[in-house]
Design a protein that fits this description.
By secondary structure, the protein is mostly helical. It has a domain of 65 residues. It is 60% helix and 0% strand. Helix 1 packs antiparallel against helix 2. The radius of gyration is 30 Å and the shape is elongated. The relative contact order is 0.11.
Length: 110
């Protein structure tokens, strides 16, 4: 689930960053920063956004195709098997100690 959020965050970030650069270049009338191959840096950011949108959609579709039990059990399958099993206690619970617990030291006598 965390990977989907990261991919979506990058997609939105690059989309806004690229759109901001393209709008600024349109208002100014020239490229702010010439990108590689003479293409505006804004278009490269839009390309990165499209790449991350594709990754987001593919990951989301892959997650939805999994059975729900497998989706929820992804993290538990990585844990050691003894941690997945419920705790069983064979010993009876001990009764509470009737004696008072004194943890503070008495004040010094002068």
């Amino acid at each position: 689930m965390m990977g989907i959020i990261v991919k979506l965050s990058f997609a939105v970030f690059w989309l806004f960053f690229g759109a901001t650069i393209l709008i600024a270049e349109y208002n100014r009338g020239q490229q702010l920063v010439p990108g590689p191959f003479g293409v505006s840096l804004g278009w490269w950011c839009i390309l990165l956004s499209v790449y991350n949108w594709i990754r987001f959609v593919l990951t989301w579709l892959f997650q939805r195709r999994r059975p729900p039990a497998e989706r929820e059990g992804i993290m538990t399958s990585l844990r050691p098997q003894h941690l997945n099993q419920p705790r069983t206690t064979d010993a009876e619970p001990q009764p509470a100690d009737p004696n008072p617990q004194i943890t503070e030291k008495p004040p010094p006598t002068s």
